[in-house]
Design brief:
alpha/beta
Length: about 220
């Protein structure tokens, strides 16, 4: 099932599209706003715009790249969401377990893109950070840019048994690989580690108009 269309935020979309066309988009962005306003959906829209083969104010929705993003199948789109902490004891196996958990969630969202909030105990653990590092170290599959979306970034666990991984995450955001875009989302920027927040360009999403919400519900909600 394809992603539902992005609702609202026209001014923000215009500014982002202008930055993409002018090659002036910061490599680390922090989308903030209330629950359900569309932060992660806007991040996916931005990825689609960046990958779109036609290049315009909005993703064309018809090219191969747009279809791949719509199906959450683009090889250079990496979407990280909070997951249960891996149970394996070996660090490498923890990363593999995190990758499997994320793959399962993405498969569920392909079938039902109107997802519910993550479990309250889910987080971005050290295993997830290592997985982000691993994927960020690889080259682009399609030969172009790469987009990393970190939903609910306030659930990043900064310290466990290995603070080096969290420090490496900070280093990654401070000096992101060329051609890589990191989009973090959060309800409240104050919940994100200050050291991470300082490396990101903030973009605040305002509430949607009532009629925009009604229209979306009429078209896409059961």
């Amino acid at each position: 099932m394809p992603l539902p269309p992005l609702t609202g935020h026209l001014e923000t979309r215009h500014r982002l599209a202008k930055a993409v066309r002018g090659a002036s988009l910061p490599q680390v962005l922090l989308f903030t706003g209330r629950t359900g306003v569309g932060k992660q959906r806007l991040a996916l829209w931005l990825a689609q715009l960046i990958f779109c083969e036609r290049g315009g104010e909005e993703p064309c929705g018809a090219c191969r790249a747009c279809h791949l993003v719509d199906g959450l199948s683009h090889a250079d789109l990496h979407w990280f969401v909070p997951i249960a902490r891996p149970k394996a004891g070996d660090p490498d196996k923890q990363v593999d377990e995190a990758a499997e958990a994320l793959a399962g969630i993405m498969e569920e969202r392909r079938k039902q893109p109107l997802y519910t909030p993550a479990d309250g105990m889910a987080s971005h653990s050290i295993a997830t950070v290592r997985l982000i590092q691993r994927r960020a170290s690889l080259t682009s599959v399609e030969g172009g840019p790469r987009v990393f979306i970190i939903g609910e970034a306030d659930r990043l666990v900064p310290q466990e048994s290995s603070p080096e991984a969290a420090n490496a995450m900070l280093k990654l955001l401070e000096e992101p690989p060329q051609g890589a875009l990191f989009v973090l989302t959060t309800l409240d920027p104050r919940r994100v580690l200050p050291t991470i927040r300082s490396r990101a360009a903030p973009i605040r999403l305002n509430r949607l108009a009532d009629e925009e919400v009604r229209s979306f519900l009429r078209q896409h909600a059961e």
